[in-house]
């Protein structure tokens, strides 16, 4: 009995010694933003564990955070049986990796940005993974990526190389995904995650957002609500194939692994070469998903979209007006009408190039960027002159990454197209993709832009399109053992071309487009002023598309165009005012033949554009609050409030006839409770009674508008009301 007790004492003694030693050795890494903490701690084996992610804790209490079992960056090896963030085959054929903490450094990169780099290293092999974080203080956004490097004797093959793993130890998780297809982008669907793995991904390589965007919202312990509750939002900054995995394990832990889609993309890493993954941008909010939106928009205006502080231009695009059928005379007429209505810019779309193989439809000419002499015998110079005379800027469409097999470029360089040997060509929209893994092709694509903008310095705007994804993959540039690098090398090549273009042409405005919204991401957007989210310009559908888009991407760049009715894609007819009110809630443009408009329609448009010019600073710089969701009610409402709370703008739409009137209250948000505000309807319908008029010109406190709200009924299908909220 005595002996047993002595043994027990001995055990306790050793446990205490070990704990003391461990307590001394333990490393704590805190990634801090203004309101949040992401905390990592090492365990007794030196493995780094994600131990907390949430609202900021008092510094003194960080030591009370317990170490979890959730690896910061789990590697395949030892006892790990869940989906790994990292898997490699070492130079000697060993399939396993065991990463332990080595060191970390934290430094201020700029006033608002703190960089942390944590080195993890294999216990045996000379292979390190650096977990890198930029913590954007003010907006509470974390940008996380990984860098992998080794000094083994021979090449190491990477099979899994995640940007990040985020782990949570809560009781339930609700995932919202953003899915769709051409003309039906950014639909939102929420589901509770159950045990197992839910994978959101794209294997498309190019136009990789065609079926879904690399964005997610995660409601923690309940569905994500707009204005309260804990929600995490993230988006991967990568225009190539991507993957987001959500694994709930048997103990109800959630692991979110993000990164380049590893599918068929094993990467042979030479000694000392650094493999840098794209970044996941994410944030955690304790006041719902609306707060996530506002953080991303504010962050994007500073870091995520090109010149987020310059005012955007309104434009008229001739795509839906003419498609490929235009000539010099038609374009000059459109330029004249666009200028007359007050647009800032005319945008000439697809179809202006190709001579041996004229671009009269999508079957030929892509790749041959010489002006089509038959359609435009006086060249672009004449159109530019006309624009100058009419005091309107000029923009032009290009798709420089692509080629029609029926083109002079393809005749000269068939080896530049992505295609697998011994297989038939697999065109989509009659075109192939140029192999941007090849530096010569990168130079060529850059030169297409360079030549155009150098020859025509008056071109003020470029629409950069990309209308297909990769199939039949194969590169005649990459060696046989590196064919699997193509998805990654293409994307790196593309980003490098964007970079070169921007370095040489900093002032030109550029629109990111990909057969609609097939390429929207925060690796590309820093080079672009605006983005085209969908070819579907139907105002009703656009309400949904824009609703989803603005969770992560900022309205300042969200191009939204008024087009004809019946709409070309949906055949739906909606009033012109409704179409304007939807387009004006983002970045206003137009996509129709003005010559087919009545005088009254033109007058309405002229006035609407003028109104928009007076309020666009609120849309482009305001905080977005969603008041009534189209997913929940027939009446939709949203508002923008300027950060100084002096001006706000409310958009309200009725999507379906309500015989007895829809009188849902609009509880305004983001105002100063103490300020006095006047309400003023704008872009009013001509000759139609507005039920809002009872409130017109009255003064209310911010407190009243947020507590009692704004109350007026709406009756008719596609009725819309836009009003300003102006502080004294
Ligand atoms: C797809 C784009 O989304 C459209 O706006 C238009 O530019 C066409 N391509 C032109 O081919």
What does this protein look like?
With 728 residues, the protein is α+β, with helices and mostly antiparallel strands. The chain contains 12 helices and 36 strands. Strands 5, 6, 7, 8, 11, 12, 14, 15, 19 and 20 form a 10-stranded antiparallel beta sheet that branches. An 8-stranded parallel barrel has the order 21-22-23-26-27-28-29-30, surrounded by 6 helices. It has a 6-stranded antiparallel beta sheet with strand order 31-32-33-36-34-35. Helix 4 packs parallel to helix 5 and helix 9 packs parallel to helix 10. The relative contact order is 0.08. The N terminus is likely disordered. (2R,3S,4R,5S)-2-(hydroxymethyl)piperidine-3,4,5-triol binds next to loops.
Secondary-structure-derived class: alpha+beta
Shape: globular
Low-confidence stretches: 1-24
Q: What's the tally of helices?
A: 12
Radius of gyration from CA coordinates: 28 Å
Tally of DSSP β-strands: 36
The portion of residues assigned to helices is 10-25%
């Amino acid at each position: 009995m005595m002996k047993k007790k002595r043994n027990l004492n001995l055990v306790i003694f050793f446990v205490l010694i070990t704990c003391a030693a461990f307590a001394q050795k333990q490393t704590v890494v805190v990634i801090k933003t203004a309101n949040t903490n992401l905390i990592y701690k090492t365990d007794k084996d030196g493995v780094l564990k994600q131990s907390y992610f949430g609202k900021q804790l008092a510094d003194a209490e960080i030591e009370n955070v317990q170490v979890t079992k959730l690896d910061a960056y789990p590697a395949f090896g030892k006892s790990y049986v869940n989906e790994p963030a990292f898997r490699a085959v070492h130079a000697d054929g060993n399939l396993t990796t065991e990463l332990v903490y080595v060191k970390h450094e934290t430094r201020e990169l700029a006033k608002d940005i703190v960089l942390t780099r944590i080195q993890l290293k294999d216990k045996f092999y000379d292979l390190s993974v650096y977990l890198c974080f930029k913590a954007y203080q003010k907006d509470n956004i974390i940008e996380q990526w990984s860098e992998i490097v080794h000094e083994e004797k021979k090449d190491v093959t990477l099979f899994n190389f995640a940007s990040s793993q985020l782990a949570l130890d809560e009781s339930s998780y609700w995932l919202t995904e953003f899915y769709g297809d051409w003309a039906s982008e950014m639909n939102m669907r929420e589901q509770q995650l159950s045990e197992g793995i839910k994978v959101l991904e794209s294997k498309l390589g190019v136009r990789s957002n065609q079926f879904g965007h690399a964005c997610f919202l995660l409601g923690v312990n309940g569905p994500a609500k707009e204005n309260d509750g804990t929600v995490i939002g993230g988006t991967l900054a990568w225009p190539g194939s991507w993957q987001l995995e959500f694994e709930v394990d048997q103990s109800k832990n959630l692991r979110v692994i993000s990164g380049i889609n590893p599918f068929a993309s094993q990467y042979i890493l030479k000694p000392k070469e650094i493999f840098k993954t794209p970044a996941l941008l994410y944030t955690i909010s304790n006041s719902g998903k609306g707060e996530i939106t506002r953080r991303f928009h504010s962050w994007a205006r500073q870091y995520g979209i090109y010149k987020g502080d310059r005012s955007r231009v309104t434009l008229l695009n001739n795509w839906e007006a003419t498609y490929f059928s235009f000539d010099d005379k038609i374009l000059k007429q459109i330029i004249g009408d666009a200028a007359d209505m007050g647009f800032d810019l005319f945008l000439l779309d697809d179809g202006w190039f190709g001579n041996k193989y004229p671009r009269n439809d999508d079957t030929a000419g892509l790749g041959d960027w010489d002006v089509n002499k038959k359609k435009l015998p006086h060249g672009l110079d004449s159109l530019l002159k006309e624009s100058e005379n009419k005091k309107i800027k000029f923009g032009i469409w290009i798709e420089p990454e692509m080629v029609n097999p029926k083109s002079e470029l393809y005749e000269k360089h068939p080896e530049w197209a992505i295609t697998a040997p011994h297989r038939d060509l697999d065109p989509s929209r009659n075109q192939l993709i140029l192999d941007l893994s090849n530096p010569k092709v990168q130079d060529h694509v850059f030169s297409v832009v360079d030549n155009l903008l150098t020859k025509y310095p008056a071109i003020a705007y470029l629409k950069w399109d990309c209308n297909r994804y990769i199939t039949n993959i194969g590169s005649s540039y990459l060696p046989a053992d590196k064919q699997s690098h193509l998805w990654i090398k293409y994307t790196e090549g593309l980003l490098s071309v964007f970079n070169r273009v921007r370095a040489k042409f900093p002032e030109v405005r550029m629109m990111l487009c990909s057969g609609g919204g097939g390429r929207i991401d925060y690796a590309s957007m820093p080079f672009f002023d605006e983005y085209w989210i969908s070819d579907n310009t139907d105002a009703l559908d656009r309400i949904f598309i824009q609703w989803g888009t603005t969770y992560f991407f900022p309205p300042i760049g969200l191009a939204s165009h008024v087009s004809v009715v019946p709409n070309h894609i949906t055949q739906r007819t909606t009033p012109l005012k409704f179409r304007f009110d939807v387009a004006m809630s983002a970045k206003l443009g137009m996509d129709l033949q003005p010559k087919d408009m009545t005088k009254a329609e033109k007058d309405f448009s002229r006035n609407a554009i003028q109104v928009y010019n007076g309020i666009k600073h609120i849309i482009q710089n305001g905080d977005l609050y969603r008041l009534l969701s189209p997913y929940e009610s027939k009446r939709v409402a949203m508002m923008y409030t300027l950060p100084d709370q002096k001006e706000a703008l409310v958009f309200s739409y009725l999507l379906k006839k309500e015989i007895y009137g829809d009188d849902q209250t609009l509880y305004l948000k983001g105002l100063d409770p103490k300020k006095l505000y006047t309400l003023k309807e704008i872009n009013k319908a001509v000759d139609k009674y507005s039920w809002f008029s009872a409130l017109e010109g009255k003064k209310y406190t911010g407190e009243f508008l947020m507590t009692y709200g704004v109350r007026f009924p709406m009756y008719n299908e596609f009725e819309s009301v836009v009003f300003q909220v102006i502080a004294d």
